[in-house]
Amino acid sequence: MGAFPFRIDAVDGAARTGVLQTPRGAIRTPAFMPVGTAGTVKALSVDQVASSGADIILGNTYHLMLRPTAERVARLGGLHRFMRWEGPILTDSGGFQVMSLSKIAKVREEAVTFQSHIDGSRHTLSPERSIEIQADLLGADISMQLDECVAWPAEEARAGEALRLSARWGERCKAAFGAREAQALFGIQQGSTFEALRRESSERLIETGFDGYAIGGLAVGEGHAAMCEVLDYAPAMLPPERPRYLMGVGKPIDIVEAVARGVDMFDCVLPTRSGRHGQAWTWEGSVNLKNARFAEDDTPLDPNGGCAASTDYSKAYLHHLVKSQEILGQVLLSWHNLAFFHLLTKALREAIAEGRLDAFRRDFAARQRTG
């Protein structure tokens, strides 16, 4: 039993739908978590994020510890108050950004030392410091263990080293986190694309014991087919009674296929990043609003969409905004994309509850295109 009750309401194959209950509100699963990297879901107000259907958002430890600093956020009342978001917040551990963004990062048993990508200042991130930032200073509802995520492709020996270091760091995170009733801690399964390593990682995580379990080390360049191959076995290695979170995923088709394999939670910058670059996600796939064919298209992106950006503005107007590089275009497309991702997870929840997920998957895949 984790810190937060997790109720599974229906099962269809490996897929599940249910509710993760937190003190700040219920998270309906499958759930998509918008990424609020620096205390903001880019281009959107928290009211727009909430109206799009989000139950929970994600904050980024690495970015917030560097600017404005976790200590400052704490002095200003914690991340919820700072950004005016009343629902649950999950924070990542900072490990992924340390590896990918910092100018120089050195991984040792005790901690990661790195130089800020902003000003070159030196910092140390240990498992204990990561928990202090997430749980104590930012006040996250769900904190993630510090882990080492290796680049892809990875040799088996290197992936094994990283998962074992992550497992030891997970134990230290659990010790630093202690027992809390109003906050939860998730462990992270590693092991790259090696089934035996994923199993070893899972066994070590279960031995330590976490409130939820994430699948890490995917969506790092391996591609959709390779990701699905790992997801054919990885979720089932984790405790079925606790939520399973696939980190950094992804495209709508990725989410649909991962849900079918037993994943409950997702996060990705894709909806807002795509929106800032003129791309909209729809039931028929992605569309590029820069395309001249939309210049006089008076129809909305989705007349049955989940927000005003989807229903109230023509593709011609959105095309004009994108071509003119107007900020409103970035706002509206980000809002639309986020609403679409939440309509997708709502449709997945309904399909699972009604026992028709296979038909939904086939229909969704058949309709996807790009252009």
Can you tell me about this structure?
It is a single chain. The protein is of the alpha/beta class. 41% of the residues lie in helices and 20% in strands. The chain has 15 helices and 17 strands. The strands form four sheets. Strands 4-5-6-10-11-12-13-14 form an eight-stranded parallel β-barrel, surrounded by five helices. The chain has a three-stranded antiparallel sheet with strand order 1-2-3. α8 links the parallel β11 and β12. α11 packs antiparallel against α14. The N and C termini lie far apart (46 Å). The mean pLDDT is 96.
Task: Produce the secondary structure layout.
Blueprint: E1 6-12, E2 15-22, E3 25-29, E4 31-36, H1 46-51, E5 57-60, H2 61-66, H3 70-75, H4 79-83, E6 89-92, H5 95-101, E7 105-107, E8 112-115, E9 122-125, H6 127-138, E10 142-144, H7 156-177, E11 184-189, H8 195-208, E12 212-215, H9 224-231, E13 244-246, H10 252-260, E14 265-268, H11 270-276, E15 279-282, E16 285-288, H12 308-311, H13 315-323, H14 327-353, H15 357-367, E17 369-370
Parallel strand pairs: 4-5, 4-14, 5-6, 6-10, 10-11, 11-12, 12-13, 13-14, 16-17
Antiparallel strand pairs: 1-2, 2-3, 7-8, 8-9, 15-16
Helix pairs in contact: 6-7, 7-8, 10-14, 10-15, 11-14, 13-14
